[in-house]
Specification:
- With 445 residues, this protein is an alpha/beta fold.
- The protein folds into three domains: 134 residues, 3-Layer(aba) Sandwich (Rossmann fold), CATH 3.40.50.720; 162 residues, 2-Layer Sandwich (Dihydrodipicolinate Reductase, domain 2), CATH 3.30.360.10; 94 residues, Alpha-Beta Plaits, CATH 3.30.70.
- It has 13 helices and 17 strands.
- The strands form two sheets. Strands 7, 8, 9, 10, 11, 12, 13, 14, 15, 16 and 17 form an eleven-stranded mixed sheet that branches.
- Strand 1, helix 1 and strand 2 form a beta-alpha-beta unit.
- The chain starts with 8 loop residues before the first strand and ends with a strand.
- The relative contact order is 0.12.
- The model has no long low-confidence stretch (mean pLDDT 93).
- The structure holds L-homoserine (HSE).
Length: 445
């Protein structure tokens, strides 16, 4: 077919925030080159946004403005509806549903929407024979969706894991490199615009969990099951943990990890210790990384910008290119009718080593009690360090001040989550610690 015989792909964009504006800039800059490759131009014909008058540094005069995103979704002059509003429910959900019902292709960066309603939307798209593409929803500019949906189709995936939230990685990196406290770095990340409008989504691990939900489905051909993910954020990580990790040869990263085990699928988001010389430990600042262990491809690691106008627009553009070429696959690779029910492994069955930081009372017999409880649960210790707090004690050999506390850091050999939890419950019940124990899983890489 000659390029002249093909019509432009007509696009409606809802949401002209960072990503929407980035998409218009990308098309202004690279549109001609893309048209030559695709044999047809990508043409934005209409947009919908709350704030029409904001200067975005990109020409909008030729575009039709549609006040209501849901109206734009069914506009007879568009072929593709691009949803860049964000949020799991309300207008974005209604607009995406309306577009699919009307037989429009949809491209979205909305991880929350897909994590919550992915299967229903995929069924709708498949029923209508249209695309529902979401490369921009996970890890920004890293082409992880296409990689998993297409390039790794010949593999059984054993595990997928990664650093999926730039804000958290930025905070942890700054704490590590500059010795800054959590709250101070969070304020800086907000000022720089990395964090979501509500930073709880980032630091509480929910943004990572939305993304991991989608990767889990792609990896294992299961239903999209956000509610089955175990989620812990980075709010409890202190400088003491960062420094202890460093001394022990580790870095702390907020990881999303999904793997198959004999007990079912383990899909979890939490701060994890990774060996400091591992490739993923070198991923610093707002950069994201996704690792996939394929049975034939081997262990892959994709690293790149996880957020930002340009990187995310690049992902949206790749989805539009597929649609312009007439390529579309089931959104979650497996036709939605064939997605398996999600079989969750209980967290208690998780196997791994642990870092534990206890704030122990500085009294005779405390250490013995701690090791006894660990031993009772079959938890074997690799190392145990009692650190003398620099300021708190009068000096080496002196009698501890009444009520003095001392940090005790333990590293366990491989055990189960159930065993470590029971041991720590016992230690707390014995009254040997003055604060809730800090526990960080050590990820086996
Ligand atoms: N707030 C997200 C992050 C943006 O920090 O990675 C991309 O989802």
């Amino acid at each position: 077919m000659s390029s002249k015989s093909l019509q432009p792909l007509r696009i409606g964009v809802a949401g002209l925030g960072t990503v929407g504006t980035g998409l218009l800039q990308l098309l202004a800059s690279n549109g001609q080159r893309m048209a030559a490759i695709l044999g047809r131009p990508l043409q934005v014909v209409a947009v919908s946004t709350r704030n029409k008058d904001r200067d975005r540094g990109v020409a909008l005069d030729r575009l039709r403005w549609v006040a209501d995103a849901t109206k734009l979704a069914t506009d007879p002059e568009i072929d593709v509806f691009v949803e860049l509003i964000g949020g799991a429910d309300g207008v974005p959900k209604a607009a995406v549903e309306a577009a699919l019902h009307a037989g429009k292709h949809v491209v979205t960066a909305n991880k929350a929407l897909l994590a919550r309603h992915g299967v229903a939307l995929a069924k709708l798209a498949e029923g209508k024979g249209v695309a529902l593409n979401f490369e921009a929803a996970v890890a920004g500019g890293i082409p992880i969706i296409k990689t998993m949906r297409e390039a790794l189709a010949g593999n059984g995936v054993r595990r997928v894991y990664g650093i999926l939230n730039g804000t958290c990685n930025y905070i942890l990196t700054k704490m590590q490199d500059e010795g800054l406290a959590f709250n101070d770095v969070l304020k800086e990340a907000q000022a720089k615009g990395y964090a979501e409008a509500d930073p709880t989504f980032d630091i509480g691990g929910f943004d990572t969990a939305h993304k991991l939900t989608l990767l889990t489905s792609l990896a294992f051909g299961t239903e999209v099951a956000f509610d089955q993910i175990h989620i812990e954020g980075i709010e409890t990580i202190t400088l003491a943990d960062i420094q202890a990790a460093d001394d022990l040869g580790y870095r702390i990263k907020l990881l999303g990890v999904a793997l198959t085990t004999d007990a079912g699928i383990e899909s979890r988001v939490h701060p994890a210790m990774v060996p400091k010389h591992a490739a993923i430990a070198q991923v610093a600042g707002v950069t994201n990384a996704v690792a996939i262990d394929g049975d034939f491809a081997g262990d892959l690691l994709l690293v790149g910008p996880g957020a930002g106008a340009k990187a995310t627009a690049s992902a949206v553009a790749s989805d539009l290119c597929d649609i312009a070429r007439g390529l579309h696959l089931p959104p979650f690779a497996t036709p939605s009718a064939n997605l398996k029910p999600y079989a969750r492994a209980p967290l208690g069955t998780h196997k791994g080593a642990y870092y534990v930081r206890l704030t122990a009372h500085d009294r005779p017999g405390v250490m013995a009690a701690i090791t006894t409880r660990m031993g009772e649960q079959g938890v074997s210790l690799e190392s145990i360090v009692q650190r003398r707090p620099r300021a708190a004690l009068p000096g080496i050999g002196a009698t501890p001040l009444p009520g003095a506390q001392t940090p005790v850091i333990l590293i366990t050999h491989e055990t189960t989550e159930a065993a470590i939890r029971k041991a720590l419950d016992g230690i707390e019940a014995d009254g040997k610690v003055a604060a809730k124990p800090q526990t960080i899983r050590i990820e086996k890489l």
